[in-house]
Amino acid sequence: MGIAREVFGDSLPVAERYAEFLADAGVVRGLIGPREVDRLWERHLINCAVVAEVIPQGARVIDIGSGAGLPGVVLAIVRPDLKITLLEPLLRRTTFLNEVVDMLKLSNVEVRRARAEEVAREFAVDIATARAVAPLERLVTWALPLLRPGGELLALKGERAAAELEEAQPVLKRFGVRRTELLQVGRGKVDPPTTLVRVVAERVPRRAKGSRKRSS
């Protein structure tokens, strides 16, 4: 808990209430596996919280396929300056998320029940996050249309991060993306460090195809 105190600071009591709810209702409702309870902090909460290291102050964030709120709820707890939308298509999960937001009094969070492709024209956010949602080549097609020009997708990935980035190159080229990188955050706080794939939307993705036609 020393690391948790360092990461969450004054927000640690809120994070503790969230952890308790995950370990209880989250397991009962099938959002967290029973085997994850003993490692909620290092594998889930701290693992997600350190993503805040690379998110700018006051950013507008959308968490795609938020599920139990990882990483969206955790980021809202550790960074109250962020404005976060938890995007989740399943009713039972959005019900859970709304309960979490109300219980923790997270005034910087809204819950939206929808698929990313259904709301693409409604958002132009600074940051899109996703954890254990889909392979990167599919995820970028959902995330990029939600970003403002210059906005970033931060995808939490595991040991296949580099391979997924390589596999996603045809899709990234189709969207006109030229800036991508692998990042590790949380060194000294979580072992192993959290691996992120950062994809920068250098132009508005939904217009990319039309732009190519005009230039040909």
Could you explain the architecture of this structure?
With 216 residues, the protein is of the alpha/beta class. The protein has one domain (2-215): Rossmann fold (3-Layer(aba) Sandwich). Helix content is 39%, strand content 21%. The chain is built from nine helices and seven strands, in the order H-H-H-E-H-E-H-E-E-H-E-H-H-E-E-H. The protein has helices at 2-8, 12-28, 40-49, 72-78, 91-104, 136-143, 161-167, 169-174, 208-215, and strands at residues 60-64, 83-87, 109-112, 125-131, 147-157, 179-185, 194-200. It has a seven-stranded mixed β-sheet, sandwiched between helices. Strand 6 (179-185) and strand 7 (194-200) form a beta hairpin. Helix 1 runs parallel beside helix 3 and helix 3 (40-49) crosses helix 4. Mean pLDDT is 92; it is low at 204-216. Keywords: Cytoplasm, Methyltransferase, rRNA processing, S-adenosyl-L-methionine, Transferase. This is Ribosomal RNA small subunit methyltransferase G.
